[in-house]
């Protein structure tokens, strides 16, 4: 049960997992900043939240841009109140086998996932430590365990797990928890793009994945949103530095 209304920031929230997380956090009673590269693309999610009686704003920013991130976080604080919940979800794919992967493929993926999460967290933790309360959730992936054609993505997602554990050590004394969620196969535009890349229809791709998942189905963005809701709740204050694999079965 929600006891305090907080301000939450969700990056990469214009669609997919980020959008579902934003809607869920608004349903939990929080004011939510919908952050994505294209501010216009965030507005339908803002409207969905507002129609349900919630509070949200759209914020356009490149999370790998230091100046832009600082300005975006200040805007959220001014318009919604000091942010004490941060979900670092923004991400991109540049899949390829290692010998075909370009330096740009590597740099873009590491920049968005790792630099972006670092910049957002550094900016937001100042509000959390002042409030003596905070919840940080970083979106990792089962790809952190290794995945063919994703050397860049796997490295970034594994890096986020180390980043998360270090945040937990540094920020715990301020009442701030940091955890990571590592989704398995989730039905999003990103996984649809992966299916197209390997020449499969999305339905075939999902069926093949479901056959290998113990619960017998692929995941949805709402599955991740439920996990985020728990980790950002008042009651999750003794859970920190953990990596939760939301993958329909044991991983790692």
Structural domains: how many: 2
Gross morphology: globular
Distance between the termini: 32 Å
Helix content: 40-55%
State mean pLDDT (0 to 100 scale). 96
CATH third-tier fold name of the largest domain: Rossmann fold
Helix and strand sequence: EHEHEHEHEHEHHHE
Rg computed from alpha carbons, rounded to a whole number of angstroms: 17 Å
- What composes the largest sheet? 7 strands, parallel
The number of helical segments is: 8
CATH architecture of the largest domain: 3-Layer(aba) Sandwich
Question: Which percent range describes the beta-strand content?
Answer: 15-25%
Give me the count of strands: 7
Strand order of the largest sheet: 3-2-1-4-5-6-7
Q: Segments where pLDDT lies below 50 for 5+ residues?
A: none
CATH class of the largest domain: Alpha Beta
CATH superfamily of the largest domain: NAD(P)-binding Rossmann-like Domain
| Structure classification | alpha/beta
Question: Would you kindly provide a written description of the structure presented here, covering whatever features stand out?
Answer:
The chain has a seven-stranded parallel beta sheet, with helices on both faces. α5 links the parallel β5 and β6. The two termini are 32 Å apart. It has helices spanning 16-27, 39-51, 66-80, 103-131, 151-171, 189-197, 202-210, 221-231; strands at residues 7-11, 31-36, 56-60, 83-88, 134-139, 176-183, 243-246. It has two domains: 7-184 and 221-246, Rossmann fold; 185-218, no CATH class. The radius of gyration is 17 Å and the shape is globular. α3 packs parallel to α4 and α4 runs parallel beside α5 (151-171). By secondary structure, the protein is α/β, with parallel strands linked by helices. The mean pLDDT is 96.
């Amino acid at each position: 049960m929600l006891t305090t209304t907080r301000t939450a920031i969700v990056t990469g929230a214009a669609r997919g997992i980020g959008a579902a997380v934003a809607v869920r956090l608004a349903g939990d009673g929080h004011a939510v900043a919908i952050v994505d590269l294209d501010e216009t693309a965030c507005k339908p999610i803002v409207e969905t939240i507002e129609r349900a009686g919630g509070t949200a704003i759209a914020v356009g920013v490149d999370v790998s841009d230091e100046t832009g991130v600082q300005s975006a976080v200040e805007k959220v604080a001014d318009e919604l109140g000091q942010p004490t919940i941060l979900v670092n979800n923004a991400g991109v794919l540049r899949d390829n086998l290692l010998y075909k992967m370009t330096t740009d493929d590597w740099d873009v993926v590491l920049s968005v996932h790792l630099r972006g999460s670092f910049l957002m967290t550094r900016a937001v933790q100042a509000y959390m430590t002042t409030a003596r309360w905070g919840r940080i959730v970083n979106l990792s992936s089962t790809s952190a365990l290794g995945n063919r054609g994703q050397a860049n993505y796997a490295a970034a997602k594994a890096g986020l797990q180390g980043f998360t554990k270090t945040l937990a050590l540094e920020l715990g004394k301020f009442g701030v928890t940091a955890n990571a969620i590592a989704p398995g196969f989730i039905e999003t535009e990103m996984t649809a793009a992966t299916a197209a890349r390997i020449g499969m229809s999305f339905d075939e791709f999902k069926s093949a994945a479901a056959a290998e998942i113990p619960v017998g189905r692929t995941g949805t963005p709402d599955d991740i949103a439920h996990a985020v809701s728990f980790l950002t709740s008042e009651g999750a204050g003794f859970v920190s530095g953990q990596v939760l694999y939301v993958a329909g079965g044991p991983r790692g």
